[in-house]
Structures are given as C-alpha cells and as structure tokens.
Design goal:
Helix content is about 10%, strand content about 30%. Strands 2, 3, 4, 5, 6, 7 and 10 form a 7-stranded mixed sheet that branches. It has a two-stranded parallel sheet with strand order 1-11. It is globular and about 40 Å long.
Amino acid sequence: MATLSPEQLGACIRYEGALYATIDFCPPNQSDKADCADFLAPPDGWTVAPNRPQIVSNVVAKHKWGASVLILSDGSCFGTASNDKPGKLFKSNNLSEQDGMFKPTETPQKHYRVLITCTKIIVSTSG
C-alpha cells in the first residue's frame, strides 16, 4: 500500500480504480514540458504503468503531464495531450531500469516522463 502526500495525490489522476502519475509527480495539467532524465524509483506500492490501449487513450493522451511523451512498462512511448499526435506511438524499447529505478533510455526531440500506477493508497496528512 502506497502513502502519498496531498501534493502527490494532486498530481495523480484516477482511471478505472487505479491512480496514475508521472514518476516525478508532475501534475497532469502541467503545460511546461521537461524531461525526467534521472533514474527515479516509484514510491512503495507503485509500478510502471502497463501498455494497454485504454491507458494510452484515457490516461496518456488526455492529459499534458509536463511532457510530450510518456513511457510505459514495456518501453513504449506515447504522445500526451501536449503532443500534436496524442496517443501515437513515438518510440519503443525506451525504458532503462537500474536497482528498481527508471528513466528514459533516450530523449530524442521530445520531452519524456515515465508513467506509474497504484491501486491502493493512504494519504499522509503529516509533513
């Protein structure tokens, strides 16, 4: 079970009973784009989101996420709402993993972030 701060929870969207966020908890409506180029570990209880058509169309393509492209667990990279082609596959095999941490393998011509998911959370009200 994952514990989130209210700020982290505010950077998530809910879809079909699960929460989704970028690995660095960039808000889903963030227009300013940047790469998440460093290895980051998802919080306890979170995993990199799977590549499923309904996640691409309802989570990735409908939100900006502060990126042009989001990366899913198989390394597939799909356009966000900030991209001129939301939901389009842009690159494959683009997820690097090291000791439970993840980052884009490459960030060519777009701004990349990793999408994570969790189904059970606790919201922490302490600092």
